[in-house]
Amino acid sequence: MNQNPHVAIVGASGAVGVEMIKTLERRSFPIGKLTLLASKRSAGKKLKYRGSEIAIQELTESAFENVDIALFSAGGGISKQFAPFAVKAGAVVVDNSSAFRIDPNVPLVVPEINPEDAKSHQGIIANPNCTTAITLMALHPLHKAFGVTRVFASSYQAVSGTGAQAISELENQVKQIANNQEVTKGVYPHQIAFNVLPHVDDFLESGYTREEMKLENEGRKIMHHDDFKASVTCVRVPVYRAHSIAISAEFKKSVTVDAAIRVLSDAPGLDVVDDTQNNVYPLPLIASGKDHCEVGRLRLDCALDNGLCFWVAGDQLLKGAALNAVQIAELLVS
Q1: Which CATH number belongs to the domain containing residue 25 in this structure?
Q2: I want to staple 284 with a disulfide (CB 3.0 to 4.6 A). Which of 136, 184, 205, 242 is the partner?
């Protein structure tokens, strides 16, 4: 791998694409050249990087000439269509969509957890689902110490996980309600302002949604734990940015709160925020814009054997997407 690689961002005009540009600059990634790619509609628009402006180019099959690393964040359909052309041109694709996550030939990587898996790539490395990544930042260190068997979890997912239109919808609905106007909706099937929707992604025949199955399916692959079980309810909440997850985990070994805190305090990319006597615990408002995830509200689970309850918050546009992708790119050039 070129030590000053030519990097392309696919979906550069989207929320995650913009965060990728900012993250590359903030972490002083050793870029030799940066190419920004998006749909024909966004072509020509300029975005700032290191004090200069770079024009977005139209994404085409031939857009990856001389590209070393291609960071994809434009949806699964685009990834399936264009990632093979990037690989054929010689690039390593880091894909943020769900297109390749469960493909047995594609590593699914969280650099703090399974960086060695990235070495086995055949041209594509997948980024996990945002809620999965944030959850595993706290769950995996505990798994290494105590051996997790199963979890019951509920997510509290920000509207920015759906995209820019969802942010606008929440903003507009809040204004409409404040002005006694009729509430309009388009992104979500119900009003999201001052409401919560137990519905993220499409429903499956089982009654779970696709999003709810990702923690189990992706968690097994990332943690190399084929017996891991997760029963999850994913909830959309009227928060602009950063996801939170309430987790009840059962372990093979006996666990105490003090032992768990010691383990979590040593975990990379994670901050323990747990002082309930002073109302200190992870908040999405505080986690927004931070690289690290936060964990708190640690307590023994009173309904599970060897159980522990905890609460995790993290910026899903960063650790759940852009930051994790850039960290994978850092593995490739290290």
Answers
A1: 3.40.50.720
A2: 242
For 50-105, write each residue's pLDDT tens digit.
999 999 999 999 999 999 999 999 999 999 999 999 999 999 999 999 999 999 99
Domain tally, the chain: 2
Q: Which domain holds residue 146?
A: 132-316
The CATH number for 149's domain is 3.30.360.10
88 vs 310: CA distance, rounded Å: 44
Are both 117 and 138 inside the same structural domain?
no
Instruction: Indicate the pTM of the whole model.
Output: 0.95
Please report how the helices 257-265 and 130-146 are oriented relative to each other, as an axis angle in degrees rounded to 10.
Answer: 120
Provide the annotated active-site residues.
130, 243
User: Distance (Å, rounded) from C-alpha 86 to C-alpha 99?
Assistant: 15
- Order of all β-strands in the sheet with 270-272: 229-236, 148-157, 243-251, 307-314, 293-300, 270-272
233 alpha-carbon distance from chain centroid? 17
Per-residue pLDDT tens over the stretch 192-211 = 999 999 999 999 999 999 99
